[in-house]
Amino acid sequence: MTRNHVSTTVNGDQVEFLCETQQTLLEALRDELQLTGTKEGCGTGDCGACSVMVDGRLVCSCLMLAVEAEGKAIETIEGMAKGEKLHPLQKKFIEHAALQCGICTPGILIAARSLLTRNPDPTESEVRFWLAGNLCRCTGYHKIIDAVLDAAREMRGA
Amino acid sequence: MSTMLKYQQKDLKIVGTRPLRPDGVDKVTGRARFGADYKLPGQLIGKVLRSPHAHARIKSIDVSAALALPGVKAVVTRDDFAEMPDEMAAVGELMINFRDVTRNMMAREKVLYDGHPVAAVAAVSESVARAALALIKVEYEVLPHVIDVVEAMQPGAPLLNENQYTAGVKPKPERASNVAKRLEFGCGDIAAGFKQADVIIEREFNTKPVHQGYIEPQACLASYSADGQADLWTSTQGHFVFRAQCAKVLQMEVSKIRVTPTEIGGGFGGKNNIYNEALAIALSRKSNHPVKMVMTREEVFRGTGPTPGANVKVKLGATRDGKITAAEAELNFQAGAFPGSPVNQASMCAFTRYDLANVRVVGNDVVVNRPKVAAYRAPGAPIAVYGVESVIDEMAKKLGIDPIEFRLKNAAKEGTQTYYGPKLGVIGYIQTLEAARAHPHYSAPLGPNQGRGVATGFWFNIGNETTCSLNLQEDGTLTLNLGTIDVAGGSRAAMAMMVAEELGIEFERVRPFVGDTSTLGFNFLTAGSRSTFASGMACVIAARQVIEKLRARVAKIREVPLEAVAWKDGRAEPADASVAQFAPMTLPEIARMAGKTGGTVAGHAEINAQGAGPGFGTHIVDVEVDKQTGAVNILRYTVVQDVGKAIHPAYVEGQLQGGAVQGIGWALNEEYVYGDDGVLQNPGFLDYRIPVASDLPRIDTVIVEVPNPNHPYGVRGCGEVPIISPMAAIANAIENAIGLRLYQQPFSPPRVLKAISDAAAAKR
Predict the structure, then answer these.
(1) What is the CATH topology of the domain spanning A4-79?
(2) Between chains, do A102 and B20 touch, taking CB under 8 Å as contact?
(3) B696 and B661 in contact (C-beta within 8 Å)?
(4) CB-based contacts of B318: which residues, under 8 Å, 6+ apart?
(5) Interface ipTM > 0.95
(6) Which of B17, B25, B29, B526 best probes binding to A when mutated, by most A CB atoms within 10 angstroms?
(7) pTM, two decimal places
(8) Rounded CA gap, B324 and B327, in Å?
């Protein structure tokens, strides 16, 4: 099977990979670039575990073809912490016990960061609706919402 | 021989606090490795061909075209696995039969459900493997199927297993039946009990199967070496149990298989049994390459175990002043394609919250053309309790007694004789009811179309075989190797906390991890809320061994009698002023000298933990019913539960919240939908809708702590109980809101609308 050559940017680094035409961005990230922090929960865009940013937009990487990544800027969970320094959302998720199994956590963190970029002071209801595309089966969401609101407070310096 | 450690009340420094979980940073940075994140050089991708039919005889399987496809390295079918005789083994609370395990992982004579595996291939890529599946020719003789449990019990129903005769019926029935087993529990005189009743209520309920819905699909990686040894990485709730199952169906020696558990992306009972693991090892053996197999979400729904759907009949009698005189139930549970539903557990949980003289529960375990059921958090209990607590609520209303007061009048307590065997020990059921009644939620005002419901739950909790080892390192830190999988509730943190508490050191100085199967002896899987109870007990034993060894070392170093050395706050010091005095030694000081004073210091435990303390909970829920759409909105939710002792309260709250929300999904939306063709119509998260953040309010929790007398810190376990009550509590709240009782789960908008329109039609 002929493979396509793709050049793209992932977490600020120029990368190249080969992929089959039908492969998704999620598959390319995980299998070709070894960035396994982005998870597959459904493959149909229903669970949000594969959430990444593409040119500043929140997308399910399982719904985007890998070849479409050509020339784009992609951000994944692996780029969220700066060295040893965790992003406030990452820190608050641990402090608030907002994760259990952790399979949904990378996607929820990416989605939550994109919310706080657009809206630094969301209400509880806004957080709940923004994260409605990210399924979590362990927590019942309660502590996730607390962690996002607390991170927002800290990031605003409130 | 079993082990119990008595509860000792003491001042606690670490247990009961909220340190940060040791797996936290890895999970927020993407560094944590789950089942699908493992990879080996030269690995192949394995995929499974599944039956498109609900019930069919396999006439032939032709794999030649698939094998001829370039890039295909191996194909396995039923011919690659040995026939297994009937042999039972425990997995969690449920039992499995190896005859069925081997047939469930790969169909033999017949396919028994849509999604039943018939062949598996290993190829150089996912796309080649998929292409190979399409080239396998299976000739089926399609047979009539049966999906519904009540229909499956009828004499003329299509039979899944022509050689199955209902067990538990004497004399042995003359005709084969889909009813695999009939159970009966009871006490007292049920007829006399109903005679004493002033009011009798009898109702029938039906529920649909729901899936555990873990977000991580099953994933494993197997590597078989030509020397006959295999390595397996898999997402599992019990690596030792998976090893045993693989060894059995592959006819390998147990020690030849090493299973490394990966981080597990949710299980809830659904990862207690093997699915692809033995296929991956078999494909690796045949292809001489490592083989990785990851299920799609569709495969998870079609091929792995949901919880049963059921038909439940409940009859309750009570006196006018609110004393229950008789309680009777019939529980007809779908087992799926093979026997082994949790009807046994459901039967025992149905009424065990009440102190009752006259009880009769009949349970039927019924095979149907659906995937074989697996455990799901308090397996079976929510279904039975939905029926029973609905009738309890109706009875309270009929008698004009507050629903919590009615439960208190009949509540089980220490010494209550259960109808299934033991007397209850120290329990906290009444405390949960009283805490719920006192909670501001219970007396808050309600608006129009809003209603409040209450329901309660009971689960046994379990112990069983448990191993761990605690190694003191040269710098005075410790590594804690656990045999019990942390299924993500945070048990690694809880174990390290108990060890740190015993040793009197900081939590951060104990590094807990779960090793592979070669590092410890057999440890049972994480199920039945046994982890913090049983593994905690083992950790305490190991820590106390370490302390004893440390005291002996110090006695030797300081040349004082052993009795003179006390262990306190992480160091050895003179026991009191009357003994030989010596300079205290800290853990790092002793550790540095360990090599010269007899070698490294370690503690370990190999126990069969007994004395699990039952857990009880009381839930309060407020709902609002939209009469135009039938939608039920959860306005407020409070979980009150006796956990014995919350080692890490935040993680206990997480269990209570997560369990309650799974119960909310069960109540309101989740169900397996089959067409007349016996094919599952909603194998995806779009059409099988689990709760999302915007569906829910905050989930308030009240942790009640009535210590389990048979655990050093009083732990009971907490993961199962919270899923038991939501379905019943929500049904009761809907009735309170609109005056209509729902007898069919889920209480989805179409069903609620139908109930409203049926009631309106009946009035006309």
Answers:
(1) Ubiquitin-like (UB roll) (3.10.20)
(2) no
(3) yes
(4) B197, B198, B199, B324, B325, B395, B399
(5) yes
(6) B29
(7) 0.98
(8) 7
